[in-house]
Design goal:
The chain has a single domain, classed as Pnp Oxidase, Chain A, CATH 2.30.110. The protein is about 30% helix and about 45% strand. It contains five helices and seven strands, in the order αβββαβαβααββ. A six-stranded antiparallel beta barrel has the order 1-2-3-6-5-4.
Length: about 150
Protein backbone atom coordinates (compact mmCIF):
# COMPACT_ATOMS: atom_id res chain seq x y z
CA UNK A 1 0.00 0.00 0.00
CA UNK A 2 1.43 3.35 -1.00
CA UNK A 3 -0.23 6.75 -0.70
CA UNK A 4 2.58 9.09 -1.68
CA UNK A 5 1.67 12.41 -3.33
CA UNK A 6 3.14 11.11 -6.60
CA UNK A 7 0.92 8.01 -6.63
CA UNK A 8 -2.18 10.02 -5.72
CA UNK A 9 -1.32 12.53 -8.48
CA UNK A 10 -1.00 9.66 -10.96
CA UNK A 11 -4.44 8.39 -9.94
CA UNK A 12 -5.97 11.87 -10.24
CA UNK A 13 -4.42 12.45 -13.67
CA UNK A 14 -5.56 9.13 -15.08
CA UNK A 15 -9.10 9.55 -13.71
CA UNK A 16 -9.28 13.11 -15.07
CA UNK A 17 -8.06 12.09 -18.53
CA UNK A 18 -10.59 9.30 -19.06
CA UNK A 19 -14.34 9.57 -19.62
CA UNK A 20 -15.27 5.89 -19.69
CA UNK A 21 -14.71 2.96 -17.39
CA UNK A 22 -15.44 -0.73 -17.60
CA UNK A 23 -17.89 -1.50 -14.79
CA UNK A 24 -18.05 -5.07 -13.55
CA UNK A 25 -20.97 -6.34 -11.53
CA UNK A 26 -22.13 -9.86 -10.83
CA UNK A 27 -25.22 -11.82 -10.05
CA UNK A 28 -25.27 -15.40 -8.79
CA UNK A 29 -21.56 -15.74 -9.52
CA UNK A 30 -21.77 -14.59 -13.14
CA UNK A 31 -19.62 -11.52 -13.91
CA UNK A 32 -21.06 -8.85 -16.18
CA UNK A 33 -19.19 -5.86 -17.65
CA UNK A 34 -20.32 -2.61 -19.28
CA UNK A 35 -18.88 0.70 -20.36
CA UNK A 36 -20.05 3.62 -18.22
CA UNK A 37 -19.33 7.33 -18.24
CA UNK A 38 -17.86 8.14 -14.83
CA UNK A 39 -16.80 11.06 -12.69
CA UNK A 40 -14.91 11.20 -9.41
CA UNK A 41 -15.30 13.49 -6.42
CA UNK A 42 -12.35 15.79 -5.67
CA UNK A 43 -11.50 13.85 -2.50
CA UNK A 44 -11.31 10.57 -4.51
CA UNK A 45 -13.74 8.92 -2.07
CA UNK A 46 -16.54 8.39 -4.59
CA UNK A 47 -16.94 7.52 -8.25
CA UNK A 48 -20.21 8.30 -9.98
CA UNK A 49 -21.99 6.76 -12.94
CA UNK A 50 -25.53 6.70 -14.29
CA UNK A 51 -27.75 4.00 -15.71
CA UNK A 52 -31.41 3.44 -16.29
CA UNK A 53 -33.15 1.29 -13.73
CA UNK A 54 -34.23 -1.22 -16.41
CA UNK A 55 -30.65 -2.38 -17.14
CA UNK A 56 -29.05 -5.66 -16.17
CA UNK A 57 -26.26 -3.78 -14.40
CA UNK A 58 -28.80 -2.01 -12.18
CA UNK A 59 -30.50 -5.33 -11.36
CA UNK A 60 -27.09 -6.82 -10.58
CA UNK A 61 -26.31 -3.91 -8.24
CA UNK A 62 -29.57 -4.45 -6.38
CA UNK A 63 -28.56 -8.08 -5.86
CA UNK A 64 -24.93 -7.33 -4.92
CA UNK A 65 -23.56 -3.80 -4.52
CA UNK A 66 -19.90 -4.80 -4.91
CA UNK A 67 -18.29 -3.43 -8.07
CA UNK A 68 -15.01 -3.15 -9.88
CA UNK A 69 -14.25 -0.42 -12.39
CA UNK A 70 -11.30 -0.30 -14.76
CA UNK A 71 -9.95 2.83 -16.43
CA UNK A 72 -6.84 2.90 -18.61
CA UNK A 73 -4.97 5.13 -21.02
CA UNK A 74 -4.02 2.60 -23.68
CA UNK A 75 -3.75 3.63 -27.29
CA UNK A 76 -3.78 0.11 -28.76
CA UNK A 77 -0.21 0.57 -29.91
CA UNK A 78 2.98 -1.35 -29.09
CA UNK A 79 4.08 1.52 -26.85
CA UNK A 80 1.31 0.56 -24.41
CA UNK A 81 3.48 -2.24 -23.06
CA UNK A 82 5.98 0.30 -21.79
CA UNK A 83 3.82 3.37 -21.19
CA UNK A 84 0.22 2.49 -20.37
CA UNK A 85 -1.42 2.82 -16.98
CA UNK A 86 -4.60 1.34 -15.57
CA UNK A 87 -6.60 1.81 -12.39
CA UNK A 88 -8.90 -0.73 -10.86
CA UNK A 89 -11.38 0.72 -8.39
CA UNK A 90 -12.98 -1.63 -5.89
CA UNK A 91 -16.01 -0.55 -3.90
CA UNK A 92 -19.74 -0.67 -3.38
CA UNK A 93 -22.34 1.16 -5.46
CA UNK A 94 -25.62 2.62 -4.24
CA UNK A 95 -28.20 4.84 -5.87
CA UNK A 96 -28.01 8.45 -4.69
CA UNK A 97 -31.19 10.21 -3.49
CA UNK A 98 -32.21 13.57 -2.02
CA UNK A 99 -29.82 16.45 -1.42
CA UNK A 100 -26.78 14.22 -2.03
CA UNK A 101 -28.07 13.54 -5.54
CA UNK A 102 -28.11 17.22 -6.47
CA UNK A 103 -24.60 17.78 -5.14
CA UNK A 104 -23.15 14.71 -6.84
CA UNK A 105 -25.11 15.33 -10.03
CA UNK A 106 -23.22 18.64 -10.34
CA UNK A 107 -19.89 16.75 -10.11
CA UNK A 108 -21.05 14.25 -12.74
CA UNK A 109 -22.36 16.90 -15.13
CA UNK A 110 -19.20 18.97 -14.82
CA UNK A 111 -17.39 16.11 -16.55
CA UNK A 112 -20.28 15.01 -18.78
CA UNK A 113 -22.50 18.03 -19.59
CA UNK A 114 -23.71 16.32 -22.80
CA UNK A 115 -25.41 13.63 -20.66
CA UNK A 116 -27.71 16.07 -18.83
CA UNK A 117 -30.93 14.87 -20.51
CA UNK A 118 -30.04 11.23 -19.87
CA UNK A 119 -29.01 11.55 -16.23
CA UNK A 120 -31.93 13.82 -15.28
CA UNK A 121 -34.59 11.60 -16.86
CA UNK A 122 -36.99 9.99 -14.35
CA UNK A 123 -35.91 6.43 -15.14
CA UNK A 124 -32.17 7.14 -14.69
CA UNK A 125 -30.33 6.33 -11.48
CA UNK A 126 -27.19 8.17 -10.37
CA UNK A 127 -24.94 5.72 -8.56
CA UNK A 128 -22.19 6.49 -6.08
CA UNK A 129 -19.37 4.01 -5.64
CA UNK A 130 -17.75 4.26 -2.23
CA UNK A 131 -14.11 3.56 -3.07
CA UNK A 132 -12.54 0.89 -0.89
CA UNK A 133 -9.29 0.70 -2.86
CA UNK A 134 -7.49 1.94 -5.96
CA UNK A 135 -5.03 -0.40 -7.67
CA UNK A 136 -2.76 1.57 -10.01
CA UNK A 137 -0.71 -0.42 -12.52
CA UNK A 138 1.95 1.19 -14.69
CA UNK A 139 3.80 -0.63 -17.46
CA UNK A 140 1.96 -3.90 -16.63
CA UNK A 141 4.14 -4.60 -13.60
CA UNK A 142 4.42 -1.60 -11.27
CA UNK A 143 1.45 -2.11 -8.91
CA UNK A 144 0.45 0.38 -6.22
CA UNK A 145 -2.56 0.08 -3.91
CA UNK A 146 -4.17 3.13 -2.33
CA UNK A 147 -6.93 3.20 0.25
CA UNK A 148 -8.63 6.62 0.02
CA UNK A 149 -9.63 6.79 3.70
CA UNK A 150 -6.05 6.54 4.98
Amino acid sequence: MEKTPEVVDNIRELLASQRLAVLSTQNQGQPYSNLVAFAVTPDLKYLLFATTRATRKFANLLADSRVSLLMDNRTNEEADFAESAAITVLGQAWEVHGADRQQLLAVYLEKHPYLRDFVTSPNCALLRVTVARFILVNRFQDVREVYPGL
